[in-house]
Design goal:
It is a single chain. The chain has 14 helices and 14 strands. It is of the alpha/beta class. The strands form 4 sheets. Strands 1-2-3-4-5-7-11-12 form an 8-stranded parallel β-barrel, surrounded by 4 helices. Helix 13 links the parallel strand 11 and strand 12. It is globular and about 60 Å long. The structure holds 2-(hydroxymethyl)phenyl 6-O-phosphono-beta-D-glucopyranoside. The site of 2-(hydroxymethyl)phenyl 6-O-phosphono-beta-D-glucopyranoside (P53) has 16 residues, from loops. Belongs to the glycosyl hydrolase 1 family. Keywords: Glycosidase, Hydrolase. GO terms for molecular function: beta-glucosidase activity.
Length: about 475
């Protein structure tokens, strides 16, 4: 039976702000991640007005990858990584975001980091904006509610495309751009788009406006990137949580279609270069008057992505209710528990079949190469007295997902480029700011309060993943 391609990109994924630390080193500016405190499951992270004394900001030091990347990449190489997904912290390159000239120390850091990867034949896979835009752009410009952000982002993109055109081939523009479909909570609008809502403001059109500017900026970046190096592969990055109908009641099925429309129209624009009709009709019904120019619509057509990068952790479920005849989707109210699957300690529903479903969903719709750029199990790990971590539950989670991924490739014929599990080394959780929600194959000695030696050690899953890569998935 055929398996994965010979050049399948096995690797791991992280994001700059969740592991680098060094938040004030090398001329780095303050990012949106630097003003978020630590929360927990059910306790949202606080977004403070700047960096305040006496608060715990876990991203400031993170796991000190900024100083330890050589040691960490060596461990990735030992596992056999073919690629390593990380992001470039925008604030290392343009500390405030609106400068005309980049910060050389920041550029040099990523030169060194990419050289270290290439030394082991590990391909860097780079996200341009992963929840870490300059905080200055929030306070001075209102974040992505401001059209000026397009120019700032494109300048940043062109700068790094040009600088690393011989070192990086695989890129993504905006991490999980569709998280902000959940605009009722503060986290996603802030981390995606630097949006701080005003009291009583109608949040929804602001989100659509910000997302539109980002999609235009993404398209301009794709166009510029292809001109800088025609070999570049530039993708989008979508948070894929398929929304199932709770039952086969036709109304539940239509509610699921509506929910999928609200969460995944972003992919349509990235891939096809135009807005789906259902969304334009929705804007009209809601009376949203958005700044979308004819020139923008031309740009979207010119900057279609080369592949679809996506994260997959869980599936959702929804049902129709009598008080919602228009099937409007509100992520804080419309989701129900799926009785057929279990959930993690953080309430994330574990659904390996949903990964096969997601791969088929994307491939049926778009026929573009797919890249699973995040997947994994956030769990509490117990370090034994001999220093080992027996994370069999993580191995099981991944094995079950990889088996479904393999069926999608071998049986369903999906074109899959690679697989980079999230947090291949323990790092700061995006959603909660915790250290104890661990994803890694590599354990990092640090706790929620910031105590620990930062020492790295191999978990049981390290050896399992090493074997998986070595056999190109034959051992699954
Ligand atoms: P944490 C929500 C739903 C799906 C993925 O998340 C998400 C989120 C945001 O929390 O984020 C992605 O750390 C994101 C990573 C993040 C990872 O999933 O909350 O791209 O930055 O760390 C896992 O457990």
């Amino acid at each position: 039976m055929p398996g994965f391609k010979a050049d399948f990109l096995w690797g791991g994924a992280v994001a700059a702000h969740q592991l680098e630390g060094g938040w004030q080193e090398g001329g780095k500016g303050v990012s949106v991640a630097d003003v978020m405190t630590a929360g927990a499951h059910g306790i949202p992270r606080e977004i403070t007005d700047g960096v305040l004394p006496g608060k715990n900001y876990p991203n400031h030091d993170a796991i000190d990858f900024y100083h330890r990347y050589k040691e960490d990449i060596k461990l990735f190489a030992e596992m056999g990584f073919k690629c390593f997904r990380t992001s470039i912290a925008w604030t290392r390159i343009f500390p405030k975001g609106d400068e005309l000239e980049p910060n050389e120390a920041g550029l040099q850091f990523y030169d060194d980091l990419f050289d270290e990867c290439l030394k082991y034949n590990i391909e860097p896979v780079i996200t341009l904006s992963h929840f870490e835009m300059p905080y200055y752009l929030v306070t001075e410009y209102g974040g992505w509610r401001n059209r000026k952000l397009i120019d700032f982002f494109v300048r940043f993109a062109k700068t790094v495309f040009t600088r690393y055109k011989g070192k990086v081939k695989y890129w993504m523009t905006f991490n999980e751009i569709n998280n902000q479909a959940n605009y009722h909570e503060d986290f996603a609008p802030f981390t995606n788009s630097g949006l701080k809502y005003k009291e009583g403001e109608d949040r929804e059109p602001v989100m659509y406006q910000a997302a539109h500017y980002e999609l235009v900026a993404s398209a301009l970046a794709v166009e510029a990137g292809h001109a800088i190096n025609p070999d570049f592969q530039i993708g989008c990055m979508i948070a894929m949580c398929p929304v199932y109908p709770l039952t086969c009641n036709p109304d539940d099925m239509m509610m699921s279609v509506s929910a999928m429309h609200r969460r995944y129209w972003f992919t349509d624009v990235h891939v096809r270069g135009y807005y789906p009709r259902h969304l334009l009709n929705y804007f009209a019904r809601k009376g949203f008057n958005l700044d979308i120019t004819d020139e923008d619509l031309q740009i979207l057509k010119r900057g279609c992505v080369d592949y679809i990068g996506f994260s997959y952790y869980m599936s959702f479920a929804t049902k129709a209710t009598a008080d919602n005849p228009q099937l409007d989707y509100d992520e804080t109210k419309s989701l129900v528990k799926n009785p057929y699957v279990k959930a993690s300690d953080w309430g994330w529903q574990i659904d390996p079949v949903g990964l096969r479903y997601s791969l088929n969903y994307f491939y049926d719709l778009y026929q573009l190469p797919l890249f699973i750029v995040e997947n994994g199990f956030g769990a509490i790990d117990q370090k034994e007295s001999d220093g080992s971590v027996n994370d069999q539950y993580r191995i099981e989670y991944m094995q079950n997902h990889l088996r479904e991924m393999k069926k999608a490739v071998v049986e369903d014929g999906v074109d899959l480029m690679g697989y980079t599990p999230w947090g291949c080394i323990d790092l700061v959780s995006a959603g909660t700011g915790e250290m104890k929600k661990r994803y890694g194959f590599i354990y990092v000695d640090k706790d929620n309060e910031g105590n620990g030696t930062l020492e790295r050690s191999r978990k049981k899953s390290f050896w399992w993943y090493q074997q998986t890569i070595k056999s190109n998935g034959e051992n699954l």
